[in-house]
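Let us work through a complete example step by step.
Step 1: write down the sequence.
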Amino acid sequence: MIVVPRVNPAALDSNLRRTPDVSADLGDVNRNFPSPGIADRPRGEIASALWELVVNQKPDWVFDLHEGFQFNISHKPKPGKDKSVGSSIIFNSKQDIGPIVKRMLDAANSSVSHPDRRFVSLGRGPKKTTLAAAAIDVLGAKAMILETTFQFQRLPVRTHQHRAMMNVALTQLGMLETSCSDIMTPSADKRRGRTYVALYDDAGGSENGVSNLTKVFDTATDITVSHLSAADIRPEVLAQFDVVVFGGGSGSKEAATIGRQGAEAVTQFVREGGGYVGVCAGAFLCSAHYPWSLNLVDTHVFTGKREVEGLGPKSMWYRGKASSQKMQLTEEGQQLFDNIPENVVVRYQNGPIVSPKKLPGLTPYTVLAWFRSEKVLYPPQKGTMIDTPAIVRGEFGKGQVISISPHPEATQGLKSMLAVAVKAVARVKHPN
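Step 2: predict the structure and record it as tokens.
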């Protein structure tokens, strides 16, 4: 099996279908392959290189993984516009591969509850000049296009659907003996010193925050990040990773989405030696304060409601819109984040203001950074943030936790702090 994971990196990095800065007729790479009676050869550098690889390998099967923007079942385009092929398997019914397509559809739909989002089969065949059509018409290979849907579905949902379909296909072809749908990382003996990060990407987590964290981890040369939905927060999945990361959003909603079983899975993961990094909402989640908290680090949160003259009772955790605040690294923080100045300015957006909870069974945390200024929206908040911990580190069982109240991943010059943090708490230790 040969995998080409990123055919058009420039378009992917720009979140575009067409290649940036390339003429319109060549920019849509998947319309540049040979087709009898239309084109004898591929067009453009990318299609030409990929086609050369495919021809040289003489494949029996070609699976082309794509995604559309809207669901095929519910999409109703304007007259003259093509109907989206999102959530479909596109194949040529003349190739007599209907039975395997049916099993792949069943696997993809096993986790789809919304009737308009179910996968359908489109046996009319891939469009001419696509890679799959070229594989069929020019090489005589069996081929299909597996389309997920970008609209309303986060990345881990779509990747799970692709894995589920390919798991069936490879099993039917005799290439797998057991299910690999939930396998997301290499075995421990093949990791070669890389840190594997599970990034929570589901309800409660900010999509913008997930995007910022993904960019940070993708920039690091020795970190691989996978996006996990709440359904993935299970012991057998988390055990494949070195660190789990919960980013910004709403800590209570993250907790509600993963549920009790998910919370127990995260707790078990850290207790057995895994690392946890929580940013803003993720720092609320790992605290020892709320009934829904994970109780991974001994932090009490300044919250509750106070009476504000003329406004009534107001929640103290909320301090208004994002702001820039002064932060000072401690000696321990400077040792860990050794490429960051001692005094910096960091983006802050209602992260937890913490102090020791002194919960039995939890060890005292180490302060890595202090807030040296504060954001105040209501008078009772004055003086409650300045000189409190901005970043803390603690131990839980065999694992380690770093709780980060502000957003260094969204602050120019501080983004690398998140990569350092995950390596600091990872199962795999690095020589830095």
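Step 3: interpret the result. The chain has two domains: 9-172, 189-425.
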